[in-house]
Amino acid sequence: KSVRLKIKRISFEKLYIAEITKGGMPSLIRQGMMAIASACLSLMVKGYGDFAVAGVSIASKISWIFFSILIGFCQGFQPVCGFNYGAGRIDRVKKAFWFSTAVVTAYMIIACAVCLIFPSSLVELFNTAGNTVGMEKAVAVAKNTLIYQALAFPLGGLYTMSSMMMQNIRRPIRASILAMMRQGIAYIPCVLLLPSFCGLTGVMLSQTVADIVSFVVCLPILISVLKELSVGK
Question: Residues near 181 by Cβ (< 8 Å), separated by ≥ 6?
C-alpha cells in the first residue's frame, strides 16, 4: 500500500530540530572543512608545477583510502555509543570506546607500515602516464608526501574516535571542535604558512603537522569528557 506525503501534515518540533542539529553539526563541519582544505591545498601546490599537483593528489588519494576505512569503523561505533549512552550504560560507552580505539589504532599502525614499506608500489597504482619526465617527478613527490602523512597515521584513530563519541553523547561543541581540527583549524594554517618556510616540502608536511596538532588538542578534550562521564554528567 502506498503512503502519500502531504506537506500540510508535516510539523516541526523545536526540540527535535535542536537535537538533529546538535547531532549532525560535527559531520557537516567535517565535510565542509574537507572542501575548504582541498581548495587551499590546490591553491598552494599549483605554484610548484603540474607534477607537484599530481604528486600531492596521488598521495592524498591513497591516504584517504585508509582514512575512509577508519571513518567507516568509527561510524559503526556511533550507534553502539548512542544506544548505550541513552540507556545510561556509561560503562559500556567507555568500554566500547576504548575497544574501538584499540582496533582502529592497530589498523592505522598497519596502514602506516604498509605506506612506509611499499610507498613506490602504492603510488605506481595511480601512474597511468608511464615513465615520462613529468610523471617521474610526480611519483617522487607522491612517495615523499605519502611517507610524511603515514608517519602520523597511528594518531588518527584516537582523535577520530573521540570526535565520533562526543557527537553521540551530547557534547556537540567539543565534537565540532575536533571535527574542524584535522582538515580545518590545524590544516589550513599549515598548508598556507609552511610553504613560505619549506617550499614544496612544506606542502607535503602540512597534513602530518595538522594530524599531530589535532592529536595534541584532542587529548585534554577527551580527558575532560571522560571525567564528566565518570561522575555522571
Answer: 159, 187, 210, 213, 214, 217, 218
C-alpha torsion sign, points 138, 141, 143, 145: negative
Can you tell me the mean pLDDT for 10-25?
Answer: 73
Question: Whole-structure pTM over 0.70, yes or no?
Answer: yes
Cα-based distances in Å from 217 to 93, 95, 154, 186, 226: 22, 22, 16, 10, 15
Place of cell 550504560: 89
* Alpha-carbon distances, residue 142 vs 108, 146, 176, 201, 222 (angstroms): 19, 6, 31, 11, 33
Q: Of 154, 157, 152, 139, which is closest to residue 186 (Cα–Cα)?
A: 152
5-29 CB burial, b ≥16 within 10 A, e <16: eeeeeeeeeeeeeeeeebbebbbeb
Instruction: Please give the pLDDT value at position 28.
Output: 73
Between CA 74 and CA 97 the distance in angstroms is 9
DSSP 47: G
Average pLDDT of the segment spanning 113-123: 93
